[in-house]
Every structure is written in C-alpha cells, then in structure tokens.
Xylulokinase
Amino acid sequence: MKRNNGKNEFNQASASLGIEFGSTRIKAVLIDEHFSPIASGSYDWENRLENGYWTYDLEEVWTGLQSAYQELSNQVEAQYAVKLTKIGSIGFSGMMHGYLAFDKEGNQLTPFRTWRNTTTEEAANRLTDLFKFNIPHRWSIAHLYQAILNKETHVEEIDFITTLAGYVHWKLTGEKVLGVGKAAGMFPIDSELVDYNTTMIKQFDELVSSEGYKWNLKTIMPKVLKAGERAGTLKSEGANLIDPSGQLISGIALCPPEGDAGTGMVATNSIAERTGNVSAGTSVFSMIVLEEELSDYYNEIDMVTTPTGKPTAMVHCNNFTTDINAWANLFAELIAALDLQVDKNQLFTTLFEKALEADFDGGRLISCNYYSGEPITGFEEGRPLFVQMPDSVLSLPNFMRTQIYSALATLKLGMDILTAKEDVKVDQLLGHGGFFKTKQVGQQLMSDALKVPVSVMNTAGEAGPWGMAILASFLIRKEANQSLEDFLDTQVFSFEVPYSVEPDDLGSNSFDIFMERYVKMLKIEKTAVQSLN
C-alpha cells in the first residue's frame, strides 16, 4: 500500500469511504486511489443493558454517523481546501450478528438486540440440533427463533430482519442486502451457492409452520451479495442522513455491507486458505480460512465465510478488553486524585509494557474478565472477578500479565479445538485492533498463548473501517474478473511487510500454568453468577 505523499491535492471521485459501527466507536476512514487513509472521523458510543437486553438506540446511529462524517469532512477541507461533495464509493460495516426487525411500513418492532446478548440459549440449542450445524447465541436466526419461543407478538408483523450495517445500508439506498460474510452471521451459508443454505431454510420454515406466520424465512432476510458486486446507490435522502449540511451528493456507488469480521480479514489480507486473523477489542475473535470443511460441528466454533464466500472457522469471545479498560480507568482516577496528569495512550502503553516484567507464574494471581455471558465456556451471564491467594505476589507487572492472560484464555480454549481436534493448520495469525496498539506486548503474549506466530501490519490500527474502505474501493477499481484475493495481493498490500513474532517457549509455559488455574477458577465464576444478582 502506498502512503499519501502529502501533496495538497486529491481526486474526490477516486476516493473511497468506509464507515464501521463498532462496539464502542463509529469510525469513518477516507482513502485515496493508493488505498492510503487521508481523513478520518469518529464518534464514541456504548451499548446499554435495558430490560434484560444489550442495545443501542437507533437515533444514536444517525447522530454518530453524522458526527464521524462531519469530522472527516472538516479534515478534508482543512487539508485540501475543498468541500467533500463526491466520493467514488462507500461501504458500511458493523458488529457481526444481532437482531433488528421491521414491519412492512419500515417501523422498528423491538429494540435492537446486539451480538452481546446471550438470552437465546434455548433457540440456539434447538436450531443446532435441527441443522447439525452450530448456531451461536448471538446469530440473528437464534434471536428470531427465541422470540418465537417466547411468543413475542412482534414476530407476526415482521417484514424484514437485518443487522446494524444492513439497516444503515437499507436506509441510505433502499436496498435490503448484505455481503456474504455479514449474512453468514445471520444464517448458515452454502459456500457453493454463496447464498443461505436452502436445506436449512426449508427446515426452519417447517419448524415454525404451525405458528401460521404470513412470512417465510427467505423473504424476510437480506439478499446475499459477494464482494465486488454493486449494492445500490446513495439516495438523496441517504446523502442527507450522512451529511445534513447538504454538501454530499447522491448517486454514489455502494458496495455490499459487511461485518467487522470480514473487514478485519480484508484489513489483514487474510482471506486465502491457511491464513487467519485476530480482531482484538471489546470482544475478540479469530478467523481461520479453511482448506476443507470441518469433520464435525462444535458449539465453540462458528462457521462463517470470507467476503467472497469461502468457509471460515470463527472463534468468537464476547469479552476481551472491557475489564482491562475498567482497571485502567481506576488507575487514571488515582493519578487524577493525586493532581497528576497522564495521557491515556501513555497509561495503556505503560500498563501493557509492565506485563512483560511479570514473574514466571504471574504471582499466582487469577482473574475472569466476563462482563457478559460467554458461550464458549457455557456462561449466559458474567461477573468480573479478580482472585489472589494468601501467598500470591500482587505487583503491577503480575496484575497486568494476569489481566491480559485472562482476556486471552477463552480464545485459547476455542482455538485448541481447531488445532488439536481438527488438525487445522495455521501458518500465522495477523492481528488488528486496539489490543495491538502497544508495540509487541499484546502480540507476543497472544503468540505465546496460542503457540502460533502473530503478525501485525502497519495498517493494524486502521482495522475495520479501513478494511471496509478497501472493499468499497474494490467495487470501482477491480479489473475484469479480478478476485478479491488478487486485488489485495497485487494492489493493496504489495508494499506491506508485516512485523512478526514467534511464540516464546518460556512465555508459552507461563501461559499454560495460568490456564490450569483459569479452568479451575471457572467454577468460582459459575458460583458468582448464581449468587450475585
């Protein structure tokens, strides 16, 4: 990828915009014809637990989108002395999974139920048994079927169900579509057809036929598209939703909306067989592109696809950095109470680097980072815990090593199924997300934990929204019959050399010792969930 040369010029019509609705931030990234970021904007938001469901208000979707876009537009005007009016292509991505339901007038039927909800255990288990295919708690079909089991009245009125990125795309273009990688978080995909699995659709319709609904499943889900296919154009009403000032014009081409899993794969150039990536932020998930289908299905492994439809094994953990962030905020409060000042980035860098100074056994400390449920280990709810023994050594390095190990532990349990039970080969994992911002620390500890090389590119911090901008660029810049894999290899990443680390034997042994304690500690976590309401 060529970097912007710093000249005070750029061609708006050749630029591509990617906007991702993440768990804690809405971020917009504008790239030029060399795929270099030239402007960005963001808006912080947070999900809320309301009436037993993790949710976001859809009004804030538009407030956040407009705020992020306005910041990006202001940067363009300041740097290039032009108003941003015309963009070559746009793409939207968002948190995988979730449930948004609408009636035929387009009215929202129930508050947005996000990926973080683990209230669908009965539905997920029944569908997994029916399909002989793992249906995770957070998938859209699990939410829909659980609503049916709960006898929720809104189900009768459903005309359309989608995910967050699909909703935004629909409101801006009028098109009810999803990229195949995003659609794979709603319902199982047939990689041969690059569409929903027709056998399973029939099974589901037969399962709920006695309810007498006027809809069938295929008609209420978005149409599935591959990367590179045109997914509509920006309507005038849509342009005003993005930019209320009226500067942005309509008619801009949009690519299929994708999930943050797919954009992570693109951002790390890991969409070919035996490649994999890890997206590490509020949640964490690894994506391994398979050479062949797994021999069996596992409740701990999601089967999704690349943005082009290739089968991909996904290990998804609901909890990752939330607990680390909470402790960091506590330390920041202490610093402020002492009338001292510290930059937030410096604070995190210092804490992460301290983790490398920990004792071999981590001071015999243990923690559980579960703020919400964690299906891989069988938890519908979480209770963050920190435990020390009377002979533990409580120091800052040991404490931070324990926090990071705790974040990696559930991912390790899921990855072991692929590597040990299925003998899946992974040449390397490419990391991206906030966990890798501190150079080498998270990268090395993850490599030690998973016992596989972990690489980080210069683009790792740009991650999802940059990956979405690349998919938008692919729509208008691909050559005839060019594959996404070839586009990434020959154009986007031809100049990129990732920074790689190998697992360290001592570090791997240290993590193994931690895991022995961690597995035992899950019994305490279960008691905490049952006892502390």
In short: The chain has a mean pLDDT of 93.
